[in-house]
Design brief:
The chain is of the alpha/beta class. It has 11 helices and 16 strands. Helix 5 crosses helix 7, helix 5 crosses helix 11 and helix 10 crosses helix 11.
Length: about 450
């Protein structure tokens, strides 16, 4: 009798899981039935974005007070009541938006993406929808997004706003997802009232800061255990595109793009590849691609940093992203005083030294004919192919076949011709001796 009951229970569990999976597929299918026709302004912005190649990601919020990253509320199981003690301690008197924008420009970056509201629900701008924001709850009392937007316009840097779908603070974000379960919020809420709140804040971001480059969403994945969740993506996306026709929408949701999205995002890894800490491996769409990564251990501010990536490693990530026809959005997490740590500043400047010399090989290029391998990859522009040799010990480099004939090959600075052999089986390059300290040995192939 007990065995029979166990079998019945097992079948019920299997059926429920199957039904849930089907429902998840159906929910995604319904969302993808929506249609979206980008405007001329949007298409022009996409073309610009695809050529920009390099941006600055900024994770900044009241969590920086604790110096333990942007997930500190979740990681340390803080309640809303405990977390609300942080804003009165946040007073970034050393915040200098001009310096931030100049640093981004010095690094060769073309745009900035900054957190307007992270998972903690705290708005880093003057929101009229809620007083849970930097103007109303901190002694600093200024709209840092407004200040940064003005500085970006002065220096011709485009500005994106990051916005978290997920909210550990709002009482209507219910039922809770996979995170923020110890916030101590009431057992209940009105989901659509939360979405109304979210849309109202997004409308503020699209109305009060002039022309913006776009909105970068995150946190949708929090409710993957509730596949029936209606995110009303079409309504939200349509509103953004109506208020800012040129604005580009990206969503770090870890699934294939939905109608209304203009960028495909990848977290801590190259497009189409499964990466550590992120459980997805997606097909590359025809949308412009962007991968985001960190300099140090995480996204938000850590009082003690460790395992900082070297300038050479960071240049390598930028180059590999370009070889995959993708942008790199490189992150810094400013401290509670509003400054960017010297280790990050130093690395960004060194990347800038590289982009000033070799930027032609990534800006305005497309992914090249030779796929990314352990040694490097390729980019291309017009009749030129740039072979980026990041790590290779040998004197000869074998490449895949080309469907066009190589007219000549030479080093990027043009100082040295490069011997090559080309046949239907591939291309063989005779590499010049690599000078000490060279991060990326670039060989130019001029095609007929």
């Amino acid at each position: 009798m007990h065995a029979r009951c166990n079998r019945i229970v097992a079948w019920v569990v299997v059926l429920c899981m199957s039904a849930s999976s089907v429902w998840a597929v159906d929910r995604f299918a319904e969302a993808r039935k929506e249609t979206y026709t980008p405007t001329e302004a949007n298409l022009k912005a996409r073309a610009w974005f695809r050529e920009a190649r390099f941006g600055l990601f900024i994770h900044w919020g009241v969590y920086s007070v604790l110096g333990n990253g942007e997930w500190v509320m979740h990681k340390t199981k803080m309640t809303v009541e405990e977390y609300e003690k942080l804003p009165p301690q946040f007073n970034p008197t050393k915040f200098d938006p001009e310096a931030w924008v100049k640093l981004a420009k010095r690094a060769g970056m073309k745009y900035i993406t900054i957190t307007s509201k992270h998972h903690d629900g705290f708005a880093m701008y003057d929101s009229k929808v809620s007083d849970y924001d930097i103007v109303d709850r901190t002694p600093y009392g200024k709209d840092v997004l407004k200040m940064l937007a003005d500085a970006c316009r002065r220096h011709d840097i485009k500005l994106f706003f990051y916005y978290s779908h997920l909210d550990w603070h709002h009482p209507d974000y219910w039922p809770l997802g996979r995170t923020g379960g110890h916030s101590g919020r009431p057992e209940g809420g009105d989901w659509y009232r939360y979405l109304d709140y979210m849309d109202a804040q997004l409308a503020e971001l699209c109305t009060n800061y002039g022309s913006i480059a776009g909105i970068w969403f995150d946190g949708w994945w929090d409710r993957m255990k509730f596949p029936e969740t209606d995110w009303r993506l079409n309504k939200t996306y349509s509103m953004i595109h109506k208020l800012q026709p040129q604005a580009l929408i990206g969503n770090n949701h870890h699934v294939d793009p939905f109608p209304g999205e203009d960028i495909q995002t990848w977290e801590r890894g190259l497009p189409g590849h499964k990466t550590s800490g992120v459980e997805y491996e997606l097909e590359i769409s025809d949308l412009p691609s962007e991968t985001c990564d960190t300099i140090g251990r995480g996204w938000g501010y850590y009082a003690e940093e460790e395992n900082l990536k070297s300038p050479a490693k960071l240049v390598g990530i930028l180059v590999q992203a370009a070889c995959y026809d993708a942008n790199l959005l490189l992150n810094v997490g400013p401290g509670p005083d509003g400054t960017i740590r010297p280790e990050f500043t130093e690395r960004l400047k060194k990347i800038g030294d590289w982009t000033r010399k070799y930027g032609e090989t990534i800006y305005g290029t497309r992914g090249g004919p030779f796929p990314v391998r352990s040694w490097g990859g390729s980019t291309c522009k017009g009749d030129r192919v740039f072979v980026h040799v990041l790590t290779w010990e040998g004197s000869e480099l074998a490449l895949a076949p080309l469907d066009r004939k190589i007219r000549k090959a030479h080093t990027f600075d043009g100082s040295e011709p490069v011997k090559f052999k080309q046949c239907e089986l591939g291309v063989l390059l005779q590499l010049p001796e690599r000078a000490e300290g060279v991060i990326d040995q670039i060989i130019v192939l001029d095609l007929e």
